[in-house]
Amino acid sequence: MEILCPTLLNESPINQHPGLWDRADEERNTKKAKNRPSCLGYPVSIFFIVVNEFCERFSYYGMKAVLVLYFKYFIGWDNDLSTTIYHTFVALCYLTPILGAIIADSWLGKFKTIVYLSIVYTIGQVIMAISAIHDITDTNRDGTPDNMTFHTAMSMLGLILIALGTGGIKPCVAVILLSAVVFIAGHNMYIMESPKGNILLQVMKCIGFAIRNRFNHRSKQHPKREHWMDWAEEKYDVCYIKHLSYSHRHSVFLQKLLIAQVKMVLKVLFLYIPLPMFWALFDQQGSRWTLQATTMDGNFGAFIIQPDQMQIVNPILIVIMVPIMDSAVYPLIKKCGLNFTPLRRMTVGMLLASLAFVAAALLQIQIDRTVPNFPSSSQTQVKFLNLENTPVPVVVEGQEPFVVPGFNSSNNYMTLDTENVTVSAGGRNATAYFQKESRHTVLINADRMLQTLNDITEKPNQGMNAIRFVNGFRSHLNFSVKSDHLGPIAPLQASDYFSVTHGKASFTIENEEGQTCHYILQLGFGSSYTVLIPNTFTFGESCTENIKAIQDINPNDIHMAWQVIQYFLMTCGEVVFSVTGLDFSYSQAPSNMKSVLQAGWLLTVAVGNIIVLIVAEAGSLPEQWAEYVLFACLLVAVSIIFAVMAYFYTYMDPAEIEAKFMELEPDDKKRKELEMMTKDNLAYVNNETSNNTDVKQTKI
């Protein structure tokens, strides 16, 4: 068969990569494949790649699970900024695969791309680990870093390198340190092909030429064309040669094939436009939902679940739901006579994700009811603690009189709108100064003297409990819990807050003579207590009888198990949306352009995360539940738009369309070869036709 377009040969991918069609290389790879060691019908090399992928995913998701908590509790950012940086990182991870694909296909090849970028990935993980070591800048060894700028800069550098690494090698195979070693160890078992040119760049060039050509011929004297991509015919006016075999006679595509393939891709990419909104909700499992879990009770009896660990519900449910959907739900729907097409499944997936956020909003409303109302920037809150055994009447200017019981506190914090307040305790007046946007506890002693303590104004971090002691005893006392020592506390003074985990907390109280008393306090998650040691306290077996623990902030009352509902709805949405979406995209894509749709799919994930960071940073909703409802409503609206687009979509058979552009020869053998060309790339065809063994090959 003659080459029909000699004038275009210089622009063809074949001319750009002549080594691709070297017959000796193909024969060498085929011979190498036949001698490949195998296990269970698969080449041993496949197991290197599986281990490699497992290690990388373990590293990536393990780091990402705690990332938003690292921002909030270590770096010290608020919820909105932590969420913004988190989703910026995720978006970058899904933008860089396009760069990785270009590097692999056009320059280094997949194997070298994996190896080199795995080093970048590993360095990024090491830098992230170093950024979390507070001792590096904690010169005074008080447990708090002294130079937070250093830690912030290191963490940002580490995240950038991780994003370049995991995103750049995502189109090939992913790596970290352990997986890189495993992957490189099996390099002799891989069939490594030379870079063939990036089909994504070819598609972009074709689209770019069509747009420029249409713009240059925008006057009315030029006739309209059936499709705007037809304006690229001037460049690809005779034919587009996709593949040539050894004799340049086995795989020639006739005119307009590339344009027809691009049209098919654009038809699917057009359906991708609404998809980012799904990912905007889905990826908040690692940000907003994790922050929501920090305000909940993670005690499951036999074990304790930390907020970041709730994310494991998603992969567990995926393993369960995928076979249930395939073997039970879909067949049942089919038996009911319903035509549950892929696009309809994706629409249902979006609606399920929106329901998940409705469930998250309802849960957030219940959580908000248990969270104290902390003072605003123009308010201050006050409560009174009586250090004596007799009740004391108290009058606060502008408030109703009340009585503080002995060795106890007033019921709740009272909210004041002024800083200077006249207070009467037991008939003695005093003017107290209370700082705005703060909480205070006023100590009342035997002389009716008023002493003000500064209380915490937020829930303790990470489900911890904030505990402090007030010494109403007549001498100095030392307080300790485990290895933490608070030092001597003078009479009528209070200790600083210190954090204690949930469960039974054992405190040791010791006087100057060495006498000790062990006091046990049962703690939940996220509470705050002021423990009063009264003046009637005595050391001995019954030393704890008079100790009074006063709860300033209630523990988290809503159990973390309630989040399973929203995780279940989101996972069901993911199964019918993501799995179906990729399968549909591949079935509608030309055989040589599935990577283009993969890049488009990853781009929708990146754009979805960009939507979240915009809403988190620019949104002005005062309540978190309202933001959940906003996202749910947006996704419902987008799903309606997608349903309309799906209604007008016409399913196509790419192989049938491509076959129309083939010139098939009478020879049955050549006919079969050409038909196989439309299903996969040339290397795949050569391996299938020349390899007579049952061993499957692993190709990089």
Question: What does this protein look like?
Answer:
This protein has 700 residues and is of the alpha+beta class. Helix content is 47%, strand content 14%. The protein has 20 helices and 20 strands. A hairpin with a 5-residue loop joins strand 10 (438-444) and strand 11. It is elongated, with a radius of gyration of 34 Å. The two termini are 31 Å apart. The model is unreliable at 1-24, 237-255, 663-671 and 676-700 (pLDDT under 50).
Descriptive terms for the model:
single chain; 700 residues; alpha+beta; 5-stranded mixed β-sheet; elongated; disordered N terminus; disordered C terminus
Calculate the mean pLDDT score and round it.
Answer: 79
Q: Write down the oligomeric state.
A: single chain
Radius of gyration: 34 Å
What structural class results from the helix and strand content?
A: alpha+beta
Which percent range fits the helix content? 40-55%
**What separation lies between the terminal Cα atoms?**
31 Å
Given as residue ranges, the uncertain stretches (5+ residues, pLDDT < 50) are 1-24, 237-255, 663-671, 676-700
Strand content: 5-15%
How many strand units? 20
Ordered list of secondary-structure elements with their pairings:
Blueprint: H1 13-16, H2 23-34, E1 38-39, E2 42-43, H3 45-65, H4 67-75, H5 79-108, H6 110-131, H7 148-168, H8 177-185, H9 199-216, H10 257-272, H11 276-282, H12 288-293, H13 313-335, H14 342-370, E3 380-386, E4 392-396, E5 402-404, E6 408-409, E7 414-416, E8 420-425, E9 428-433, E10 438-444, E11 450-455, E12 465-471, E13 477-481, E14 484-489, E15 493-494, E16 498-500, E17 503-511, E18 516-523, E19 528-533, E20 548-553, H15 563-587, H16 594-618, H17 624-647, H18 654-659, H19 668-677, H20 682-690
Parallel strand pairs: 3-10, 12-19
Antiparallel strand pairs: 1-2, 3-6, 3-7, 4-5, 4-8, 8-9, 10-11, 12-15, 12-16, 13-14, 13-17, 17-18, 19-20
